[in-house]
Design brief:
Blueprint (H helix, E strand, L loop, with lengths): L6 E6 L5 E6 L4 E5 L5 E4 L18 E6 L5 E6 L3 E6 L4 E7 L13
Antiparallel strand pairs: 1-2, 2-3, 3-4, 5-6, 6-7, 7-8
Length: 109
Amino acid sequence: MNTQSRVTTVAVTRCGNFGVLGFANGAIIKFNMQSGKERGVFGIEATASPQLNQVHSAEITGLAVDAMSRNLISCAKDRTVKLWDFYRRTLITTYSASEYPIANLSYSA
């Protein structure tokens, strides 16, 4: 994928097999750490509900993968925190922060 944007945040799975990049344009990409090959873009696949297919509309400021590599958490300056299915790269739910953009994310297993 040619994102034409700068990387703003990164995350690596606990097992070390996958890396995830967050970009200034709101894109999120998963790749294999050993081969360096892209393994998909979050939110691109068609779903039954178009609003469940949206990536962030602003700069990604934080990414975290849970200990079992089942979910990805992302946050952005668009005032949202999103929970993703890590393997399907589909959106599970979105949480909104009402007043201020989210500056960073801290996740502890």
